[in-house]
Amino acid sequence: MAGVTPMMAQYLDIKAAHADALLFYRMGDFYEMFFDDAVAAAGALDIALTKRGKHDGADIPMCGVPVHSAEGYLLTLIRKGFRVAVCEQMESPAEARKRGSKSVVKRDVVRVVTPGTLTEDALLEARRHNFLAAHARVRDSAALAWVDISTGAFHVMAMAPARLSPELARLAPSELVVADGEDRVVDTIADDLGIALTPLGRASFDSAAATRRLCALYRVDTLDGFGSYGRAELSAMGALIDYLEITQKGKLPLLQPPQTESQDTVMQIDAATRRNLELTHALSGGRAGSLLSVIDRTVTPAGARLLEQRLCSPSLALDVIHARLAAVDFTRDDTRTAEDLRTALRKTPDLDRALSRLSLDRGGPRDLAAIRGGLAQAAAIAATCHPDDLPDLLTRALANLTGFDALSGLLDAALVAEPPLLARDGGFIAPGHDSDLDDARTLRDEGRSVIARLQRDYAERTGISSLKIKHNNVLGYFIETTATHAGRMMSEPLSETFIHRQTTANQLRFTTVELSEMETRILNAGNRALEIEKRLFETLRAAVLDHAAAISTAARALAEIDLTTALADLARAENWCRPTVDGSRVFDISGGRHPVVEQALRMQGETPFVANDCDLNADSRAAIWLLTGPNMSGKSTFLRQNALIGLLAQIGSHVPADRAHVGLVSQLFSRVGAADDLARGRSTFMVEMVETAAILNQADDRALVILDEIGRGTATYDGLSIAWATLEHLHSANRCRALFATHYHELTALAGKLDGVENATVSVKEWDGEVIFLHEVRKGAADRSYGVQVAQLAGLPATVVARARVVLEALEKGERDGDAATPKALIDDLPLFSAAPPAPATPPPAPVSVPVLEMLEDIHPDALTPRDALDLIYRLKEAAST
């Protein structure tokens, strides 16, 4: 490359090997970027774009970020869809000069930062997992493997290819690795879910090579000890390991043995249902307003991650659900033990992430301190409870918190109370732990006092009280005086002792033989102390990694205890009940409430939430409630709250109800709300039909389905026909449990023909021409939708509301008279539908005076004595008779 400097030639070579990533090229205290990388990074980071040198006769664009604040810039770039290759200096400039004055410092990429491979606390959300997933297909079978390298969690699942979308929606990985040339369906799914898609060569998905990679990772001859895996599962796991080797440059994280999951062990919830129910994110996009935000009372990051994982994956195993419920019961009732546990948990660091950074050689003294603190709290928690009194889940968890006495003792003795962030800063090993380190520190520290004594001696010898001994990286230690003392310092006999080294504008600098010898001793002692500390850090890191498996188990146990006590605290504070969960198809809720809406009403100081019952008596047939009633009456809230109660019961939580009996729900489907998908050319109605089709094609007899206003997005008769046929299919083909809300009152007649369908309605009351929403669900059917009244509440012009009443009355009259042609006749009657000019507002009719009602307006029942109440009854009777 003629005309290219050696440094730029090095940059271009490294960049060529990482063409798909921005290259952070280390230059001293900065990471610098050049050419197109600089242009892209400057725009994304909003930093200055400058230039350095020329290439092919053109200026080379350049920008840079400081090394000490690089994490913030990395996070911005990752969130904007970039990958970043971090290129570090592999030697010091002094070492490079030994090969020649023009030698370039050796550099190499030490890691490639991608959305799924983050480990630094500053780049991660402490209370959420950050999954990297890989999807593999082998003929007609498929598998999904996922890993969180910040915690070491590693899972794999064999599945039908059609299950990819719901499983990705459940896991919400940051990045998905697929074979190069994967079909466009995967691209669409990843794009819909906001997942970064990374293609990888098909050789990475070879199942035979995957077996070798996994055996090498876990240092075993066979994977039989971990389980039996099909080719698709091996392919997905092997691709993950290969991708980690590429991005981490051979430094693989500490991964737990892969845990096999089955799609039959967790409740199936598709992406649309998760979105409609706002499980982890509100429809507005943030966490606030979601179910997770309302129920999360965990006090550790690991507990919060476990809660989100459980919420996204409700269990189908009755023994697991019952064990979790028993543990929540115990900590709800034993408030003293629960509070002691939560107090200790609040002091517990994030063991998993500290351990992961140490395994990747990205950790520091504070990560060792986090392990020390976490193990200390684990021991304290284990001593809090007596195993004889505990349910099995807590007994097993507590058993995994002990056995770290030797490691805890070593870390306690070795580390200072508040260690620095980086090992290279030194000062993290406690005095007395290592005699060689103590000796080096003594010499280093005494050397400073010797320098101070030497400065006083030189000041007395020269008679210059302002004389100072200073230090910089170029001259080392030197003696400095002002230029006004030049004559004295340069004359005999002082010139024989003080050797001139440098003159600046206002200062003269000298050295002495004695000072040079002392500098050598001090620098050697300081460097020796730092080298000893670095060696001790590696020893401590190795000791921690020797206990890595047990520490990971303890971390999971602490998360389990945190989640259990958090759910107990929630149940106690919110007056939630323990649900009965069994293998039946019952769904019987008494006094059920929507947890998010209830909290919102409480925070706004509004009226209390109106609780409602729901009894889907399934037995051996379908159980469907056909729910009618006006808009704004709470139909959608009722639908959602029952879905959430079923979901909460199966994560092992108490539920917002007075009583709940939930037969296992295998699938949860929701079609609530309306939205279009313009990017994919789908109208609101098309989206509705796609989601409805997914439900009708997948729901089994153990599913719980909530449907709201099916068919509303098209013509009246088309919509009614679709809603009718959908209801019949749910009843006769799916035979599931369902809540079906509709404004098509014609459907209520089906309750008399389909033995599994019952009518229910949300009560309203009319008063003085206005509609009052009671939010009470009762058996029966609504006779009207009160749409005109709701339109009036929304603020439609009075003329529009009046005209709507006229048209509605005419249409309803035609229906009552059995005149099927009336609607068309009305439409053809142009004068009837002609637009009327705005009329002056007419005052409402004067209210009719009712003496009894006037008397009741001023009555406060709570203030009445029994005698007052009796007198009031006589007065009311007298007023009513006049």
TrEMBL record:
SUPFAM superfamilies per UniProt: DNA repair protein MutS, domain I (SSF55271), DNA repair protein MutS, domain II (SSF53150), DNA repair protein MutS, domain III (SSF48334), P-loop containing nucleoside triphosphate hydrolases (SSF52540)
One GO CC term on file: cytosol
Keywords: ATP-binding, DNA damage, DNA repair, DNA-binding, Nucleotide-binding
Keyword DNA-binding carried by entry: yes
InterPro entries: DNA_mismatch_repair_MutS (IPR005748), DNA_mismatch_repair_MutS-lik_N (IPR007695), DNA_mismatch_repair_MutS/MSH (IPR017261), DNA_mismatch_repair_MutS_C (IPR000432), DNA_mismatch_repair_MutS_clamp (IPR007861), DNA_mismatch_repair_MutS_core (IPR007696), DNA_mismatch_repair_MutS_N (IPR016151), DNA_mismatch_repair_MutS_sf (IPR036187)
GO biological process: mismatch repair
Recorded superkingdom: Bacteria
UniProt-recorded Gene Ontology molecular function terms: ATP binding; ATP-dependent DNA damage sensor activity; damaged DNA binding; mismatched DNA binding
Residue positions binding ATP: G629, P630, N631, M632, S633, G634, K635, S636
Pfam families found in the cross-reference section: MutS_I (PF01624), MutS_II (PF05188), MutS_III (PF05192), MutS_IV (PF05190), MutS_V (PF00488)
Domain DNA mismatch repair proteins mutS family stretches: 703-719
CDD domains linked to this entry: ABC_MutS1
Keyword Disulfide bond on entry: no
SMART domains: MUTSac, MUTSd
Function summary: This protein is involved in the repair of mismatches in DNA. It is possible that it carries out the mismatch recognition step. This protein has a weak ATPase activity.
Family per similarity comment: Belongs to the DNA mismatch repair MutS family.
Name by which UniProt lists this protein: DNA mismatch repair protein MutS
Species name: Pukyongiella litopenaei
Chain's gene name: mutS
